[in-house]
Amino acid sequence: MGYSNEFRIKPGSKVNLDKMDAGYHGGYDDEDKAAQELQKNARRLSELQALMYAENKHALLIVLQAMDAGGKDGTIHHVMEAMNPQGCSVVGFKVPTPEELAHDYLWRIHQHTPRKGQITVFNRSHYEDVLVVRVHNLVPEEVWSKRYNDINNFERLLANNGTTIVKFFLHIDKDEQLQRFRDRLDEKDKQWKISDADYKERDYWDDYQQAYTDVLSKCSFNYAPWYVIPANRKWFRNLAVSEILVETMENMDMKYPQPTVDLAEIKRLYHAEVAEEAGFPVSSVHDKPEDKEKKGKKKGKKKKKKK
Questions:
Q1: What is the pLDDT of residue 288?
Q2: 224 shares a domain with 178
Q3: For the whole prediction, is pTM greater than 0.85?
Q4: Does residue 174 lie within any of the structural domains?
Q5: Which residue of 56, 101, 114, 257 pairs with 120 in a disulfide if CB–CB is 3.0 to 4.6 A?
Q6: How far apart are CA 222 and CA 7, in angstroms?
Q7: Helices (H), 173-233
Q8: Are residues 285 and 154 part of one domain?
Q9: The domain that contains 225 carries what CATH number?
Q10: CA–CA separation, 97 vs 111, rounded Å?
């Protein structure tokens, strides 16, 4: 289907979110068909994560950004559940602590980036420092406007050191956001998320859209691409994100490491007795590799005919 190409923001392009349909759902008419594809992608993601962990040469950083109720938590739940927690972590960035504010704004981010063999998901990220900080004038424009270059250089540093970066903006429209706020009132497991601040932030919708437009336009590169995912339909959002992740990881061209021990010798030394007790032929595990070679040569010799 090529969602990677379809939703990827090309370097240097000017983004217009108003022209991007948040309700787009590809060639799928219903959730059931998409669910089958999502399950297939989940199995593949599980395989690829195990391969990444074993090879221990690559790291993957997944950045999730969205407006309130945009589906960051839902994406983590439905897509990342395929991952083994031993090799995958989720980091949520909230209001900086006094300790974090005493450092540069990227300090708290860098310490949570993934090491080789690991996958890390950022639920919100360093981009908050050119989004909410900008919208609410928390620092002067002369400060936040310089941060785009800081972020681009930071991400290039990560990429140059073996980290693959993929960034998703989960795109919903204003009506969909209000409907999700309304739905939370009747869903006991989500009522805890309701806050006055979320409703008040809607007054800044246009400002946020402009801030996101600049982020997407200025900070999407081949080494750290942005994808704008139509997210009004949650099931399509999950499918698109999972497909892009599968393609991203397959492009890493990962391979399982070669064994560091002699497997034949391990079998001979430690597994022959088990095979005998189970009633299996054990000649193959008792014989050393050189013995097998000698036997092969003997079998290959023909008996000389008597004159």
A1: 54
A2: yes
A3: yes
A4: yes
A5: 114
A6: 14
A7: 174-184, 196-201, 205-218
A8: no
A9: 3.40.50.300
A10: 15
280 and 220 in one domain?
A: no
Gap between the Cα atoms of 66 and 168, Å rounded = 8
Q: What is the pLDDT of residues 50-97, one digit of tens each?
A: 999 999 999 999 999 999 999 999 999 999 999 999 999 999 999 999
What is the residue whose two structure tokens read 């993934």?
Answer: 114
Instruction: Mark whether 244 and 276 lie in a shared domain.
Output: no
Residue 298 has pLDDT above 60, yes or no: no
Q: Give phi and psi for 125, each to the nearest 5.
A: -165, -160
Q: How confident is the model at residue 307 (pLDDT cuts 50, 70, 90)?
A: very low
Residue-wise pLDDT tens digits, 234-271: 999 999 999 999 999 999 999 999 999 998 888 888 88
Domains: count for the chain: 2
> What is the residue-wise DSSP string for 124-159?
S-GGGGGTHHHHTTSS-HHHHTTHHHHHHHHHHHHH
Which residues have CB under 8 Å from 165's CB, separation 6+? 61, 63, 155, 158, 159, 223, 224, 225
Q: Encoding tokens for residue 122?
A: 């950022």
Q: Give the model confidence (pLDDT) of 162-183 as tens digits.
A: 999 999 999 999 999 999 999 9
Same-domain check for residues 220 and 293: no
- Tell me, yes or no, whether 138 and 279 share the same domain: no
Residue 307 lies in a domain: no
Are 282 and 203 part of one and the same domain? no
Contact (CB, 8 A) for 165 and 155? yes
Phi and psi at 180, nearest 5°, equal -70, -40
- For residues 178 and 71, membership in a common domain is answered with yes
**Domain housing 267:** 263-300
Decide if 66 is inside a domain.
Answer: yes
User: In the numeric block, which tokens belong to residue 45?
Assistant: 């993601």
| Inside any domain, residue 125 | yes
Q: Which two tokens stand for residue 62?
A: 């997944």
Please state, in angstroms and rounded to a whole number, the distance separating the CA atoms of residues 155 and 178. Answer: 34
Specify the 3-state DSSP secondary structure of 224. strand
